[in-house]
Design brief:
alpha+beta; 9-stranded mixed β-sheet; 6-stranded antiparallel β-sheet; 21 strands; globular
Length: 411
């Protein structure tokens, strides 16, 4: 069963929450972070993207960057912008984007659960990305990046969280510049906190990493390197998570662009696709896939609908995924892309950018063809994690993103 606990968050003064809140470190580059933080000394980018305060061209993985992050975090505390909660609390975090809301519980989750498979994974991690987060955690002595977990709904937990929101005022409630609203409540009543802890311990057999595999892996590696007894209650034995019930979540599409046609003509590609797909030209109008095993292809100023033929894919948890069908029957078979993790001819675009981004990049000549996919379902994610398998790279895109800086876990 899932072990979670409340924690003493490092968090901003209410009046400064919007100034502090920053998008996750890995969804923007240094130049973009510098532009967003311009004129704002309270921005958490000074911690999560601290290279913005160093000379241009500084290696973002250099020791100087991690030292600057620690220095800036200390400064935000010394100035009173951030303060340390007096007692351990749970936090309720609600996000609203385009009229759709999702609400999760911010807590710390057990690294023992991560190591023992109670917290389930569906992606491989890369050592270079792990090392970056390890260095950031060990130098700042803080987990600044949130790991986004999911679990199967527990009605009693939903009721507690709904009741708390209805009966208490939030400590933060603001709309960011991108139009996404962020509302946070502090659950500072011991009896309610104990109920939440017990329900996870008795009703939640597993949680699933939706986003943040590298942050989770890095926290586990920092704990291991410390030699800390994993059975103790030390902060190092837990990592910062926000856990959402499955009913709250929606996964967006994660689309593909390819630089060339691997020596094929347009006519040849369409002819070859017809072995594995029903192919229909749908013209210049953008059209998303309407269901699983349907794809939209943009090639030479025209959109096509591709529907996978029966018998061209397998029914196992990995084989039935649209990302697998596309990889096996198009990207590998026709376009020669064997390993999408390393091949420089392929790029990935999150569905949040819309199909217009695919059109723009193909029409510009930068890319030759684009493929839009139907989103993976949350149940497919759970099934793959339960089977012990991993998804192909860039299978899921979650929006909206949690903001860094609002709730930090000091170790």
């Amino acid at each position: 069963m899932a072990i979670i606990k409340p924690f003493r968050a490092l968090r901003p003064q209410p009046a400064l929450a919007k100034d502090v809140a920053a998008r996750p470190y890995d969804v923007l580059n240094s130049k973009e972070a510098a532009a967003e933080a311009a004129g704002n000394p309270n921005s958490f980018y000074h911690v999560s993207k601290s290279e913005i305060d160093l000379p241009e061209g500084t290696d973002i993985h250099s020791e100087a960057v991690y030292r600057k992050a620690a220095e800036n975090l200390q400064q935000l505390q010394a100035s009173g912008t951030l303060f340390h909660e007096e007692t351990p609390c749970y936090y309720i975090y609600k996000l609203v984007m385009d009229g759709r809301s999702q609400t999760g519980l911010v807590c710390v989750s057990s690294i023992a659960d991560y190591n023992n498979g109670i917290i389930k994974k569906h992606e491989f991690t890369r050592p270079d990305k792990e090392l970056d987060r390890i260095n950031h955690i060990t130098t700042t002595r803080a987990q600044t990046g949130n790991v986004f977990l999911a679990y199967n709904d527990v009605p009693e937990l939903n009721s507690i969280i709904d009741h708390w929101q209805a009966q208490h005022a939030p400590v933060y409630d603001f709309t960011a510049d991108d139009g996404i609203s962020h509302t946070i409540w502090v659950v500072n009543e011991a009896a309610t906190g104990d109920q939440i802890t017990e329900l996870f311990d008795t009703k939640v057999p597993a949680t699933y990493i939706a986003d943040g595999h590298h942050r989770a892996a890095s926290a586990a590696l920092v704990q291991k390197a410390s030699g800390e007894d994993v059975h103790s209650d030390a902060n190092l034995n837990y990592f910062l998570t926000t856990i959402f019930p499955a009913s709250q979540l929606a996964i967006l599409d994660y689309n593909r662009l390819v630089k060339d046609l691997n020596g094929h003509s347009k006519e040849d590609i369409i002819s070859r696709l017809e072995y594995d797909f029903i192919v229909e030209a749908i013209g210049h109008h953008e059209q998303k896939p309407s269901g699983l095993h349907e794809f939209s292809m943009y090639l030479d100023h025209t959109w096509y609908r591709l529907v996978a033929r029966e018998g061209t894919y397998t029914a196992d948890p990995i084989g039935i995924l649209d990302v697998t069908i596309l990889q096996n029957n198009v990207l590998d078979k026709l376009l020669g892309i064997k390993d999408p993790r390393t091949d420089k001819r392929i790029d990935f675009v999150g569905g949040i950018r819309g199909l217009g981004e695919l059109v723009k990049r193909v029409d510009s000549g930068e890319m030759a063809v684009a493929f839009a996919l139907y989103p993976v379902t949350i149940q497919q994610l759970f099934d793959i994690a339960d089977s012990g398998n991993v998804m192909p790279p860039k299978s899921t895109w979650f929006e909206p993103k949690l903001r860094d800086g609002l709730l930090t876990h000091l170790i």
